[in-house]
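notes to self, project folder thing:

trying the whole complex as one job this time. last attempt i did each chain seperately and stitching them together was a nightmare. two parts in total, labels are on each line so i dont mix them up again. if this works i'll redo the older ones the same way
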Amino acid sequence: MTTFRLVALAVPLLGAWLTAGAAAPYRPASDSEVLERLPAGRDRAADRAVRAMRALLARDPADLDVALRLAQWQLQKARATSDPRQLGQAQAVLAPWWNETAPPVPVLLLRATIRQSSHAFDAARGDLEQATAREPGNAQAWLTLATIQQVTGDLAGAARSCEHTQPAASATIATICRAAVDGVAGQAARAYAALDALTSRERLANEPVAVQTWAMTLQAELAERLDRGSDAEHWYRTSLAKDPGDAYTLAAYADFLLDANRPGDVAALVASDTPVDNLLLRRAQADRLLGSADAAVGARALSDRFAALRARGDRVHLREEARFRLALEQTPDIALDLALQNWAVQKEPLDARIALECALAAGKPHAADAVVRWIDATRLEGRQIAALAQRVRAP
Amino acid sequence: MTRARRLFLAAACALMGAGPAFAHKPSDSYLSLRLQHDRLDGRWDIALRDLDVVLDLDRNEDGRIDWGEVRTRLAEIDRYALGHLRVAAAAPCALGVADHRVDRHSDGAYVVLALGGSCAGGESLSIDYSLLFDVDAQHRGLLKLDIVDGADTHVVTAVFPADRRQQVFPLQGVSAGTQLLGYLRDGVIHIAAGYDHLLFLLALLLPAVLVRRQGAWVPVPNVAPAAGSVVKTVTAFTLAHSATLALATLGVVSLPARLTESAIAASVLLTAIDNLVAVLPSKRWIVAFAFGLVHGFGFASVLADLDLPRSSLALSLVGFNLGVETGQLILVALFIPLAYAARRKSMYQPVVLQGGSIAIAVLAAGWLIDRSLNLGLMPF
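result (full assembly):
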């Protein structure tokens, strides 16, 4: 009766996964047919080390040292391969401590990183505040806390946390941390100069590759915000030369190219079958601008992936889905709804921008009033952001 | 690299990875089940990448999983999967894997297990899902459950995260007992809100504490003839309307609503008039039975409006009818003792019997005109 009817209505939404992306099941004709490629191939030495750690944990799941090493390795792999499965596996490794209110500090750090990846920002911040209270000299904890504060819009808190990294960590880390915050707080020029001093004096070369590319990509983003296009391109390319597979830098560079109306370069940068959702989104946008038939294929794949994420109840993809709905499906009202839900959680420049774009496209500029107030308050720089905010103010 | 340096790597990850730069999604399996009578069938799609974590499918370590590496391990895969799924109705259901296929989802290749088994009755299906949680805390099982019940299929969907591994699904949306109570309540409400049925009953019962002697009403001497008359009348009415209610609901007989509604109005009118001037057979139970047949069709149209699933028709018929009888017994229980006590009072005949009957007759005449001409003027 009524309950059945409600269920029946909900079914097309929730049941979408059965059809989403699933072709007809088949029985492969030959044993040699390759069904699946494991991400980034296989590193046999690392595999053996992982297997050894798993074996140790199987005997004693509460062996903190082994668990930390394995979880740490999995988090690095999650980033290197853009594979979210590694996060869940790291969480499983940390299971003996996961629900404790005061686990060892290293567990707090890993738990915070996993939680922030699934956008549980409050829980992640709680872990890090506890970690920094227990170990005020823990630079790692302060740095991760700064990240979360910045992503969620607590710029003053982020700046303070960056200062706290100083005594324990190298000045380089503190400089990059601070530049990232200044760069979204009306101080892009100062931040750019600070990074320039770092990179030109080659102090960076002593840092791990991930820190180097972090600085370079940040410098590219700052150059973009300062309307220095050729410098931005230079730093994106330098960063990608260091780490060609870095999905964050690839996405940021692709956005730069899209803004510069160079969709052909995006198509050259990002393969049409990229497994990374963020990159596939940019590639599909480029294909659309190029009038390529690949655009429909990419849009279809993205639609399936967002449906699969929704079916499992994930909400980490709201910003990307808003952009997908706006740019590819051209349903600005749905896009605006998603962008505003996202804005309630995340407050990075990209989050502001998609909210403004959706509000304008949907003909509801006032829906983004809070975003404009935010931009005014933080003095966020950037030509596109400024132009969009202006249109929202005076439609 | 020092420990501190290694840690900063992770921090940089955190910073750069603030936006979800992820390929696809975390791990899910897709479990689709169909329960029909005692038969449970379905398919279970499990990602090869997930199975590789627990079963090391990539035996030749070439970073690829080919069909040979899956085909030769199917027995292990089945054992692993079935070891992490418990389905139970009245008793645990015996599940087996009948066939294996491969399918692609948005995030890669999945092995598809064709499930089959038996699941003996019960009011609910309990599913205990524990696949992969020990190696991937963010894994989720996505369930689609089709419950086939006669011609109806109820579809239920659910998500099993690590912290909600066991979930219970009612097999009929609500239990049969709850459903029965629901129909019973509908029946009571209908008789209470169906003034035509109430007034018909009242018209029949007004003279139940009297007997007709040479065309005139006299009070019954004691309780026995009154009680006998009430029991006979109510029983006859019940039997008659139950019969036509069942026939109409089961689709054996079907009459246009305008006809039955008009006939019901006419039955109320005639009964009320008969209280004033004898026009109907003197045995009241015969009147109750004949007109009861008409009222049954009226009840049936109400039941039809409730839009019942065919599967629970018998249940709803019994429940609704019991509700109607309950409502009617309440009226009897309220009215008869009062009438019995007041039967010798000088006002009973002129005010209650005649006045009441006239009022009922007037109302019924209004209904009759309104319904037969389809005017829609009467407020109830």
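what i see at first glance: Chain A is about 70% helix and 0% strand.
need to look closer tmrw
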